[in-house]
Specification:
Blueprint (H helix, E strand, L loop, with lengths): L14 E6 L3 E5 L16 E10 L2 E10 L2 H9 L2 H16 L5
Antiparallel strand pairs: 1-2, 2-3, 3-4
Length: 100
């Protein structure tokens, strides 16, 4: 995955809290990759990405946790949910062999 289709570089400074290949990815931007506390903008999140078996392919669930209701509201105002949904739809299309 990359922005230019060739070279991938991490564009955020996250800490990965749990990685189970093909099953689970938990990361946060509230802590830098160096495990030092962070003050991310626009808000701090911890995301759980869970993959599992499904009769029609892959079950994909994401839970995003915010530090406060105000942070969650800020993310909603910035249309975070719509953006994450667009990325998910694009990923599904690619995984299913379609074009984006």
């Amino acid at each position: 995955m990359s922005e230019d289709g060739a070279e991938w570089s991490q564009h955020t400074n996250n800490a990965y809290l749990a990685v189970e290949p093909r099953e689970l990815l938990i990361f946060t931007n509230a802590v830098h990759a160096s495990l030092r506390p962070a003050e991310p903008t626009p808000v701090a999140i911890t995301a759980h990405v869970m993959l599992g078996e499904h009769p029609e392919g892959t079950d994909y669930k994401v839970v995003v946790r915010h530090r406060s209701e105000a942070d969650r509201a800020k993310h909603e105002e910035l249309r975070f949910h719509e953006g994450w949904g667009a990325v998910t739809a694009t990923l599904a299309a690619l995984a299913e062999g379609g074009n984006t």
